[in-house]
Amino acid sequence: MRAYGGYLVLIGIGVLVAVYIAFQSFFTSFGFDLPIDEEQVGMEDQIVIKFSHVVAENTPKGLAASRFAALVDEYTDHRVKIEVYPNQSLYSDREEIEALQENKVQMIAPTTSKITNISEKWMLLDLPYIFPTDAALKEALNGEVGEELLNHLAEVNIEGLAFWSNNFKQMTSNEPIRRPEDLSGKNFRIMPSPVLESQFEHFGASTSKLEFNDTFKSLEIKKTDSQENTISNIYSKKLYDVQKYLTISDHGYLGYVVMMNQSFWEDLPPDIQQQITRAMDDTTSWLWDKAKEMNQAQLQAIEEKSTIEVYTLSDKERKLWMKEMTSIYPEFEPVIGKDLMEKMERIREKYIE
Ligand code: LMR
To answer: Considering the entire predicted model, what is its pTM?
Structure first.
């Protein structure tokens, strides 16, 4: 009888071991790694923030996004994980704002021109030659002008966190562009913003609002023949391979507004908000110099490795462009608002030589 009981205990243990092994291989086969890595802060407690953007990783915005993710991981002691999705791998620029408002992603960093349809005052930043120098840009975005713009995003359920700079735009085309009248007859790929439309149409050019990742193709198949962008975007998308001339005009600003879904942001614990803000501030100040440095180095690389002809406007030519292009300002004062325009004008005047 005793021997019989002993067999039963052994069979019981055997069954338990078999069940344990079967469950472990079942979970592992579905990608659940057991045991859980202790360093990962009890997975159920980790806050995951999806951050989607449309450019390559090796661009000012791409690098800033990765740096921000690493800093958040460090400052929150792994409690927050920023998952970065570059190259529109989740959403295109047309889709990402809606995805943010619906909390399908929690963070995006579109070019400011791309939010002018949901917050018109942002057209201010698209005005040609609105920032005559880097110093004017910094003073405006780090001061009252920037604060006012970020505050407007609350009206559309968005928390504006920071401005990430990618420097000034240049023009590329299949024909030389040296004077404003050279714009006539060209078809420019532009970002969706009424200011950018007017900036070119005012001089007899036509415009096509196309997504960033369709730009190369549209130039290649000659649906458009010209475009404006920063050097880092021209470089990373190899636009120099499908354009013959590059004019260094610094005629407009291209930067990003880093945004979070507002309800998501407000639900974050205050200490987490504080560490995210700290990581954001550190990334933003790092990016000011980094973006400039990258744009300069990549211009040199374009000059060395491509056949595109680079022309830099002289001071005299630049003044002429500025005079002509700023003539579109009055058209946009009613939407941007007199008050904001005046604040910007006061800064602008300080830096115009
Ligand atoms: C563009 O569409 O040209 C840019 O907004 C791309 C980017 O995000 O820098």
So the answer is: 0.86
